[in-house]
Write a structure and sequence with these properties.
mainly alpha; elongated
């Protein structure tokens, strides 16, 4: 996978010019002081400084350049260290993550000291305050870089596998039964019944012709000859319509109560009847293995990744409108409700420890194989852009320190 590198930043270009210009200045000073040294001994100190500064500057230029490429394009051994060892660096980085970050005990110990709920609450309540805007922009850039740089096919496969594994390991029947029981106890099932009754009434209205045709086909010849089949069909339709209307208007209608009783029975069976639980599990596995469901799960990660990219590119959009108000309210609640904070922190800690235990090796392989798939030139350029400015200071310091060492050696030579 090729990761596009940005052009060198202006600060790096400027510091590179300063370091190179200082080296050129030392070279000019050396030749000038060498020519003037016979006229006055003081020029000997200038020559010694410039000579040693050139050596130090050139040595550090070679060392800095050898990290990223062959100096002067010459295939000198042990140069172009980063591009030649990109794969090994990726493996060692992945191993470092595994040994120091993805061990469950280490994750648990680190997460114990982090109050995730309070930090999230402060940020949600005031995302632009206390450096929040800088944090938002920095997090946004980091999220974009990570989402674009990682191997999307492998990462998506890992997310899908994790999702499917969790669903397979979770027994849905008791959860559905408890949810249905809670809904019935709090009368949250009534809108569902109301919706079902409205659907029945609409279906009856839309299919009156089918009822009439059925009565006509099954009526005897005498009924059809006298036209009573139409009257009978009207009576049946009117009776059904009145029944449905009564069910809609009367919450205590016997048929509604029968439906509620049946729902309560289903909730009980979902929780406690082995046969029902087994059938639900079989249905769950059948759904997971259905090609249409697999296609939906496959597209789920890409949709989530696209949504995360949109949110990362415009993080302020999340904090606008009703959603922003709801998130700010959530932030205030997280700060003011210690019990909720403890629950969230415990959940985050267990999730992190579980992910480290279950997927640590997969994450290590993902990091290692992703780095292996990166284009060496592009990654080298990006690393140089990131740390190149500091490395140019090494060149400058090497030039000046070398010059001072040269003056010290020349002084000792003159005195002795």
């Amino acid at each position: 996978m090729i990761v596009r590198a940005a052009p060198p930043p202006a600060a790096l270009i400027r510091m590179r010019r300063v370091a190179t210009g200082l080296l050129v200045l030392m070279a000019a000073s050396f030749f000038a002081s060498r020519a003037l040294e016979p006229r006055h001994p003081a020029f000997g100190f200038v020559r010694a400084f410039a000579e040693a500064a050139m050596v130090g500057g050139l040595a550090d230029w070679f060392a800095v350049t050898a990290l990223f490429r062959h100096p002067l394009g010459l295939p000198i051994p042990h140069t172009a260290i980063i591009p030649r060892n990109k794969d090994r660096i990726g493996d060692q980085l992945a191993q470092f993550l595994r040994e120091y970050f993805l061990i469950p005990a280490v994750v648990a110990r680190r997460m114990q000291r982090i109050d995730v709920a309070a930090a999230a609450g402060r940020w949600l309540a005031n995302p632009r305050g206390a450096g929040g805007s800088r944090l938002t922009r920095g997090t946004s850039r980091l999220a974009i870089e990570v989402l674009q740089a990682l191997d999307q096919e492998r990462l998506g496969g890992m997310v899908r596998a994790m999702l499917v594994t969790r669903v397979r390991e979770t027994e849905l029947s008791p959860m559905l039964g408890r949810a249905l029981s809670a809904a019935i106890a709090e009368d949250r099932h009534r809108p569902v019944i109301d919706a079902l009754i409205r659907w029945m009434r609409g279906a009856l209205t839309d299919n009156e012709h089918l009822v009439r045709a059925m009565v006509h086909d099954r009526a005897g010849a005498v009924l059809r000859w006298t036209g009573l089949d139409g009257t009978l069909a009207n009576k049946i339709i009117d009776g059904l319509d009145k029944l449905v209307a009564d069910m809609a208007d009367n919450p205590d209608h016997p048929l509604r109560l029968k439906v509620e009783e049946s729902m309560a029975g289903i909730a009980e069976r979902l929780q406690h009847e082995p046969g029902m639980r087994a059938r639900v599990e079989d249905l769950k596995i059948e759904l997971l293995e259905n090609p249409a469901m697999q296609d939906w799960i496959n597209g789920l990660w890409e949709q989530a990744r696209a949504a995360m990219l949109r949110a990362a590119r415009d993080p302020d959009a999340l904090m606008r409108g009703k959603l922003g108000d709801a998130l700010q309210q959530l932030g205030a609640t997280l700060q003011n409700d210690p019990r909720l904070g403890r629950i969230i922190n415990r959940f985050v800690r267990r999730t992190a420890v579980g992910a480290a235990a279950d997927y640590g090796d997969a994450i290590v392989r993902l990091v290692s194989e992703t780095v292996r798939g990166w284009d060496a030139r592009t990654i080298t350029a990006r690393l140089e852009n990131a740390v190149g400015k500091d490395l140019q200071f090494i060149r400058i310091n090497g030039t000046l320190v070398g010059g001072m060492v040269g003056v010290a050696i020349h002084t000792i030579d003159v005195v002795l």
